[in-house]
Amino acid sequence: MSAAISLLAVLSGCNSSNPSDSMAVNAPTAEAVSPVVQANCPGITILDANAVHRVYAGGGNDPAKLVYQASLSDTTRSCSMSNDTLTVNVLAQGRLVPGPLSKPGRVNLPIRVTVKDGDGEIFSQVTNFAVDVPAGDAGTQFIFNNPNVAIPNAPGGASRQTNVFISFDEGGAKAGTKRGRRG
To answer: Does residue 25 have a pLDDT over 90?
Structure first.
């Protein structure tokens, strides 16, 4: 304990508020500090037209033949960047509700993540996301995660024109052509 106190006393003597210390011959040099620059991490928009995915037995849209319904509700993201790439980790919360013809088991939800810069599409990927349908009438929540949405990086991050869209893929619907909401 006394050794620790002695060490603190010696170290505290190194920190002086005396202005003449900075004029000393062997004055300590300041370390170079790189400024912290925060990149623009584009927000995520859920496309309203494709925020709900329904599967019916035998096709059609008869509510009595509904197998399950899935929906996307909330989103968040985080970004990391290198010199050339801004990687967006996209997360979305969803809910899966069994229908009258539901059976317990695993289903694949076709979730599309699209990135547009202005009018140009720079990333688009569909993930068949596995979710377990519970037995009975109770629904279940799920968290979709795609940590590899890589887009070109500009100084300071993505341009202010860059937007990330998420939806269920319903036969190749184009992102950005439908109204959406920010999550």
So the answer is: no
